[in-house]
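Record type: ASSEMBLY
Status: queued
Input:
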Amino acid sequence: MSQLVHKTSRASSAIVETGQADAAQIWNRRRLAGGVSGLDRRFTILLLMTLALGLLLLLSMALGSVSIPLDQIVSALLVGESDSTAWTNIVLKFRLPKTLTAMLTGMALGLSGLLMQTYFRNPLAEPFVLGVSSGASLGVALVVLSTGASGAAMIAGLGLAGDLLLTTAAGLGAGLSMALVLLVAARVRSNLTLLILGLMFGYLVASIVSLLLYFALPERIQAYINWTFGSFSGVTLEQLPILAAFVIAGLLIAATSVKPLNALLLGEDYAQSMGTNLRRARLRIVLSTALLVSAVTAFCGPIAFIGIAAPHLCRGILRTSDHRILLPGTCLTGAIVALCAAIIAEMPGNNLVLPLNVITALLGAPVVMLVILRQFRGRQ
Amino acid sequence: MSVPALQTRDLSIGYPRRRQGDICLARALNLRLEPGSLAGLLGPNGVGKSTLLRTLAGMQAPLTGQVLLDGADARRMRHGDLAKALSLVLTNSPQPGLMTGFELVALGRLPHSDWLGRLSERDRKTIHWALGAVNAEALGGQLVTELSDGQRQKLMIARALAQETAIMLLDEPTAFLDLPRRVEVMRLLKRLAHQTGRGILVSTHDLDQALRNCDQLWLMREGAMLVGAPEDLVLDGGITETFHSDGIRFDEDSGAFAAESPAGAAICVKGRGTRETWMRRALARKGYRLDPAAGVAGISLGQNGQGPEWHLAIGGRLSRHHSVAAVLEALKDAEI
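Status: finished
Output:
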């Protein structure tokens, strides 16, 4: 049994492999070279986190309104059949895409949160500070609130989860705001200017959405609010590669920015004096964030909390600011948090499904508070 | 003459403005920073010291003219190459989060390492050497957040050393440090310049330490720059002129700033020892004028059974006092 768990965890975490393999090499080399104390500990923690992720991936597929035994899940995944056709269908059509979406989304949000917090040197920064989710919400609001009566009926009829129209609208909104942010990022001088412009853009768009809501019919408002709750269930197996492609592209760009990110820990002036091309570094960081966040928001809605919490959790656990460790670390932390939230939101053994955004913050915030307080106490 | 590590050619510094015309802080600067020497950049606030350093460091474009590093135009160099030629230490040592002293100094190796910033054996040696050069080996394993400002600034200097550049620029690195730490940092910079052959330029407001440690001073005034050995600049009055302001004047004898021509009564202090020096300073502090020949009052050091005591003579009447404060009190009572 435990062998099986190990095997599957390794297989299912293949997507994180690139980052981890590199990181593992560095740690091994540093260890052999008589490296700094604490590296062994960090390596062990990352390994444990990977195992936890594997376990959660399995749990997320096992638990839900119907519980499915682990061995049946494994056989459904590997052979494509299990003791019950219903189980096979549930696993392959619903729980596999949902689980992978949760993992990818968690990785994307954790990583982009880290990028934003480092780049703006601000612990309150999160993936949405640049206004990407605002753009997406405007796209969705326009579709949901302004289509004619028949359109509204159609959306209501299809159900929000599988609606391609909303995904497209959110993707367009996110993509357009991403293009705008990149355009601005290439021109402005300081990161503070960029931060304030991003926040102002967010307020601007939010007020337009509010205006649309003000004049909209109540049932359409409900449809919009449902979207803002966020969901991992809206992505089909066919759409999954698109999400994965965006996330992997964002990951790769972030991975090549490790040096500038570490240099930026000392601020822009010092980073420049240590050879960082500030403009290029900023474009890379913003582009990576934009790819990650716009794809996630388009497919899952504005998932709150994971982006701001995962980097803090990860730093608290690994006790380092080195991005060579934090990059894989926040990906793992984000994925773990997202999967936990997804499992709890399903309310295992019950037909009830809670809104995702409620779960992420309600259960996650106290955990982050504990970690931060513990870190603070340790410093005194 | 050796090839200067850093040289400027007809450099004008300042800020470009589109409509009202550029703000130019200094023009026609032809400066040379020699390898193995420590140069001190001095000048009143707002004269453009930081602007000059930012321009030399390539963080700001010159209005006109060139900055040459080892003969090459700095503006045409790539970011990575510039970082291998020139390193920087600023006034504020940043709070970089959870990292050890070693990891902070290791950031100096970024221009030399691969795309992931991995450290080679040579990188490690350089980092350990840099930590040793600033006497901070013990800080290597500590978290940077737990260090004092002075310790962190030392690590920032070690980081600049680990960058292995021919030139180091420091913008008021000692501004937030206490006096012993300031002395320590300036002596450290002198030693590093002489021992490692780096050309080091440090801007500071600490004239005394600059006079004691720098091989060369760059005195910046409104639109002009005086360059020379510290002692020459004192003797030809350059320092006195640069730092002249109302009521304060550079005293060329003592090498320190003093209040200008005190208006109080003349007092004569006899003798040349430590005690007499501090008595003179006490009198100067109270605004009395010191006259070596004669005055309304005379002070000299005497002895009694328990130790030294002050003899104060006012109009032929002699009084004895056991402390400086008592002498000042007696002068006040005599309404002098």
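Annotation: The domain at 6-245 of chain B is CATH 3.40.50.300 (Rossmann fold).
Annotation: Chain B touches chain A through 35 residues (CB under 8 Å).
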